[in-house]
Amino acid sequence: MSKSPATQARPLSPHLTIYKPLITMTMSIIHRITGGALYFGTLLVAFWLIAAATSEQYFDFVSWVFGSWIGRLILFGYTWALMQHLMGGIRHLIWDTGVGLEKRTASKIAWATVIASVALTVLIWVAGYMARGM
Amino acid sequence: MADMRTPLKKVRGLGSAREGTEHFWRQRLTAIANIPLTLFFIGLLVSLNGASYAEVRSALANPFVALILAMFLISGLYHMRLGMQVIIEDYVHGEGGKLALIVLNTFFTIAVGVASLFALLKIAFGG
Fold it and tell me: Where would one find the signal peptide in this protein (chain B) (predicted)?
């Protein structure tokens, strides 16, 4: 290839910032972010299991951390991330069969994953508090 | 002896990453497994909310619970390792940094997995 000095800015193909945020695009980004968050969330699972295997003192300490307001906030976020990633994952598995890729259908499914993940998160926490009450 | 295979034979099904569709397939396989396993994990945590140390240990010592939880950990960790690898490959462009992070990704996954499974087995075997 011959070398030619760039005398002006070369045109770039349009990237993220140029598009109006669409629900399918937003949920695709959120799928990746929740996946990344869940990656580090596994530390919480390991923390809990190790505590249960170590001693009552350590377990009570971990329970105290998880039960604090910041602990609950993190666990609530973790629950939602897990549910959103689960719903988004089911969406991908549906797409893998070649179904639901039409523009309007894809947007509807994307919205459905948000509604389902929020509803499931609330349901899980209500069930959790009910289990605690009994 | 000269290699008799044609260039096409050597690359067929491998692609540029030399692993063919294996990454994609395992991502999907673990994704499918993760659906019921995650629901079980959530159900277990809901039922154990506010439970004492003894109650949690006796629940985790149940062979059925321990086995399903072990499968959840293995499938989930494998899935997240594959996912993080794609994220690294997408955003880290320097070869050295990319390689280092891919190595760390595997180390992290194995460390979390071994620690969690050891803890689970210790409880399951009454330790």
Answer: none
